[in-house]
Write a structure and sequence with these properties.
single chain, 175 residues, alpha+beta, OB fold (Dihydrolipoamide Acetyltransferase, E2P), 7-stranded antiparallel β-sheet, two-stranded antiparallel ribbon, 9 strands, globular
């Protein structure tokens, strides 16, 4: 690939694959395959995280997560390692106690619970809706279980000003 610029008229995209982007998953439960897993340094270079990328088996999108493996905060490390063990058990890893090579995660199938992430502000000050993200706690389940799959009914429904009973949220609390 050449870095020379001969003007837009000289572009040849014949050998270039179109970037299709990535579809964010709506909140709900999904069966996914692990398509990538790698150990990375933390931002401060003092710890290690496991980057895991998932793709929905039914084509509903993809997502990824970071799991603490080594952290200066002992509680963050404990939580991260517990999350990893839950992932390994739910994905039926052959040895969830001693997973050995990170490559053994690739191709495993696992159930994932996706929740709505926080809204964010772009560089122009516009508030943008957050996408789906892997739950912080209780994120993984056995893909052979009877979990309800796909986007949750609430993520597909139009926003409502009333609760399940039809009462408005700004009603007085009945006690």
């Amino acid at each position: 690939m050449s870095s020379d610029w001969n003007g837009f008229g000289g572009l040849d995209l014949t050998e270039v694959e179109a970037d299709r982007g990535r579809a964010s998953m709506l909140p709900g439960n999904y069966i996914c395959a692990i398509i990538d897993a790698e150990v990375r340094d933390t931002k401060d270079n003092k710890g290690k995280t496991l980057f895991v990328s998932f793709k929905s088996e039914a084509g509903e999108g993809s997502t990824d997560t970071l799991i603490n493996l080594k952290n200066s905060n002992a509680e963050a490390e404990r939580i991260g390692r517990g999350t990893l063990k839950a992932l390994l058990i739910s994905a039926n890893h052959p040895n969830p106690n001693k997973p050995s090579d990170v490559k053994t995660l690739k191709g495993l199938k696992v159930g994932i619970r996706i929740e709505q992430s926080e809204n964010w502000t772009d560089i122009n000050g516009n508030i943008r809706p957050g996408g789906g993200k892997v739950r912080r706690s209780g994120a993984f389940f056995d893909p052979t279980s009877n979990e309800v799959l796909g986007p949750s009914p609430l993520s597909r429904a139009a926003p409502s000003q009333s609760g399940p009973s039809g009462r408005h949220f700004n009603d007085d609390i009945p006690f």
